[in-house]
Amino acid sequence: MNNRFPKANITLDDIESSWAGLRPLIAGNAASDYNGGDNGKISDDSFNGLIDTVQSYLKKDKTRDDVEKAITNLQGSLSEKELSPSEVSRGSSLEQDDNGLITLAGGKITDYRKMAAGAMELIIKLLAENYDKHYQLINSKTYPVSGGEINPNDIESAFDAYAQMGVTRGLEREDAYYLASFFGSNAPQVYAYVDKVPAVEGMSLAETVMLFYSLDNECVLTPNDYFLRRTNYMLFMRDKMDRLIDPVLNIMQEYFGWSDEEKQNHMDHLQKALYDNDLIALKEHK
């Protein structure tokens, strides 16, 4: 590593300290995957319970339904147990400081949903106790994200229908379909900007409405934010991004009332992000 990147100066202590943090996670999660799966082995209690149920079935003391239920409820040897809000994940912590600050730290990628649920339970409890404000948790597995109110079994038909709406507003078919697939059920609101936005040199109509809609509705605050978070340009459409940089910054300068110095600062931050994104430093060391 040091031969490849001389400035890294990685030492044995660096490696050992990193391994000290990784080792307990690896040892306690052998063969599990990023979706929370395990290695397929059955816990001793589940195995013995299944055998007892089958033996009772052979003696006519249990029914087929009992056997099927035992099979359904088999627990993997590495299956996660139910955890309290203060222990929402193995290796994670959820604490509140004396000044009220809540800190959620640690955990693993397979536990993030549990960690978030534990944090929200604590926040709801504190809001009720301290401010008499009462809320209920929403199941994020079923709650649609913004633009997600589409039949998941017929997505293509929905996109086609939304795209046709965009065509009637004056967009090219390909552009209208892209906006439909990108914004989902919010597409009609995006198309409505066709009659609101000015013509912008260097940008197509679709690119213009996409930017103005994002500024008004998607909390876009910086060029970095727009190109990296709210659109696919920096990560997946890099070849189409360069020509959009100047017009996007010009529009955002006028929209937010930036001075020329503020605009240049945003340009510098964007160029730094592109330098990292394009792996320039790595390529220069070839």
UniProtKB/TrEMBL annotation:
Keywords: FAD, Flavoprotein, Glycerol metabolism, Oxidoreductase
Keyword match Repressor: no
Domain Alpha-glycerophosphate oxidase C-terminal, chain residue ranges per copy: 141-263
InterPro entries the record matches: DAO_C (IPR031656), DAO_C_sf (IPR038299), FAD/NAD-bd_sf (IPR036188), G3P_DH_FAD-dep (IPR000447)
One example GO MF annotation: glycerol-3-phosphate dehydrogenase (quinone) activity
A Pfam family this chain is assigned to: DAO_C
GO-annotated biological processes: glycerol metabolic process; glycerol-3-phosphate catabolic process
Name listed for the protein in its UniProt record: Alpha-glycerophosphate oxidase C-terminal domain-containing protein
Record organism: Lactobacillus iners DSM 13335
